[in-house]
Request: fold
Amino acid sequence: MNWVAPVVCILILARWAAELWLSQLNRRHVLAHADAVPVAFRGIVDEPTYKKSVDYTLAKARFGNIEETYGTIVLLVILFSGVLPFAFHFFEHHHGTSAWTMAACLFTIGFAMSLPGLPLDWYAQFRLEEKFGFNTTTQKTWWMDRIKGLLLAAVLGYPLLVLILKIVEWTGALWWLWAWGALLGFQALMLVLAPVLIMPLFNKFTPLPEGGLRERLLKLAQRTSFVAKSIQVMDGSKRSRHSNAFFTGFGKFRKIVLFDTLISQLSEPELEAVLAHEIGHFKKKHIPKMLIFSTFSSLVGFYVVSVLAKQDWFYRSFGFEPGNIAPALLLFTLLSGVVMFWLSPLTHWWSRKYEYEADAFAAGVMNEPQSLIGALRKLNEKNLSNLTPHPLYSGFYYSHPTLVEREAALRDT
Ligand SMILES: [Zn+2]
Reply:
């Protein structure tokens, strides 16, 4: 069947066109509001900061368009130039078709595919982010991050690939169910290992020093019956001036992590409100709900691969001989994003719903919405967020509601 290649091409180009169109829509919307600080933000951001946020938004959009176009070309070349069947053939010819070899082949292809994006990532960090004063990463840290990432992939990702390919050999028709189980086990293991072994490879974590802030945050944890082992400060400033807060671990090993950049940007009540928001995500069970959804998605993913792996036409359309599962796994990984793109507005809508719930929770335990509003205003200002995105654009891409939307909802609580 030779309709597969054209259909896949159309899907890839449709995503590319949609992204460029949304970006253009957003650009015009931002430019239309660029002349003066919009009424809603007067007294919140000053004129120079607003202008800078407009410039940052436009610069990121321009770069994003280049990135999308480049990524689209790379994907088309990888899929249709015959380079993938050539790589598989090479590995088979020299090393056979064992799970170890096929996993090595997938790993090598994955590594090779990460290379074309490297110059763009470098540019984004050391030119774009640098220009707007966000970059604090040194060349050495940046390259070390890449090397550490590659080593982690080799130590953790490669054995997982071997295991999944072995499971296909061992278990027969229902391999996708077993492979899914193996992936769940791996993810559970990562949940435990990441805070202890992986994250310290990239950042330094130190306990929040004794004092007013620590007292305040511990009291908040107590007030909301939130169990946490410790409050840690992460040296986010090692890489960027952007700021964040999150939890790691679970049960009694849970740690609250605050970026040092966040602590330097916000007042104590504002930090308390941000943490209250994070605790809100926890109390409203957002994390397990999202986990169930992503777990279910990976089950569907494995099932789809198992169906595709039985279709000779699927293999032949991309130049492979049917028989081995590895090319089906690879093609699925490459193509799933093209389809999932159209579902992203749904998942983002869902995520925004949770953000509103966490905001409402924070305002509730703080007994006032003002601290969180103050924090959000500062974070939007410091991160030079786009204050006037096109509604269709933010609806499609934003995992968090815009500042205006969040403020309005908070005032209603
Ligand atoms: Zn949130």
In short: The longest strand covers residues 230-234. The chain has a mean pLDDT of 93. DSSP finds 17 helices and four strands in the chain.
